[in-house]
Model the fold of this input.
Amino acid sequence: MLHEDKIYEGLSIELVVHSGEYRGKYRTRIEEVGKRILSIGVPVAEGQFIPLREGTELEIFFADNISAYSFSSIIIKRIAFPIPTFIIEFPQRIIKVQRRKFVRVEVIRPLIYRILGETGLSEERQGFMNDLSGGGLLFKSEEKIPLKTVLLLKLMIGTNEMEILGTVIRSLKEDNDCYLVSVEFDEISEKTRDIIIKYIFDIQREMRKKGLV
Done:
């Protein structure tokens, strides 16, 4: 299935360059949609436009409230005015990807969770987040949480306090009798996902400055 109906003007995308001087991952958006081409904004990193060359091969990821998608393309033209944009080939094929395809970074900080059951929400319980991605997170809990349990997570993303619904997809016991719980976010808004991904990129940028990645 092409999924071409998922592409629209203003869609936020993650642009991945796998080789060359500007190898990395960048956030931008689709500016215009044509029958054979797409116009995307030139991504910015540390206040500077990323001057990718014509012919650069790209892998592009985006998501809606249900699934994540990816496609391959190539830059066929660079435009400087009125706004810096790249003209890329319209994808011949768009595929669904697993949530684990989202960039994942280590984030160690407390979070609050509540279990959503048949009688409503449980009392608040404390956990510690281990890592974070645009599709979910891993946190440490003192209790075993069954698979497919729905949780209401309360956590800080940068300076933003968020409440996000998620479903437990894995729960592994550690040697210290704690559990590592993997959660996949349930139908979060594009705005919320953008805040999370921007936060992740900020962390990666600081890690690159310190030579940690």
